Amino acid sequence: MTPAQTAATYDKIAKHWDNPDFDRSNGIAQHHRALGFVSTFGSALDVGCGSSGRIESLLLQQGFSVEAIDLSSEMLRRAKLHNPSVTFHHADICQWTLPRTYDFISAWDSIWHVPLDAQLGVVRKLCAGLSVGGVLILTSGGVYVPDEVVGSCFGHPLYHAAPGIPALLSAIQDTGCLCRHLEFDAGPNDKHVYLIAQRA
What we know:
6 helices; seven-stranded mixed sheet; globular; 9 strands; alpha/beta; Rossmann fold; two-stranded antiparallel ribbon
């Protein structure tokens, strides 16, 4: 699937993350861990922000000036309703040029939708977009070799890919950042992994 096709799928299912039944605590404890490494609470970016607004709300509560990006117009429409003070960008992270460096970047459950051959480039871009001491939190598939699949989400096709943990760690190191934390956080049978990186 192309990024545009993935965005079209999310346009159709955006309401799932923007309803009272969605667990808005999803990912928040992991973000608090990442925020523990932050020393400057200036600018923050949420990549693939989705529709719930929960991560932007957390970052605003921490005192950040927040920007967010998503390729799904419906995800963005809903996210804006939750946090109208956030600066939102309707763009493809593969093509988008970061307008500044950030003290904190979140890419929670988002860049695994980027085409496999572009993912490490996006990781390097986000690492390069950190200010000195800046922190990045991202999720990936907990695999050790590259893998990609098109599955089904609420009856619609959805693409996921992962370059593998060794490749992710190498990409982070290549940009002068350090891996501060890596965890399989969803149980022994789930391949959901998150990483925290920091610019030295």
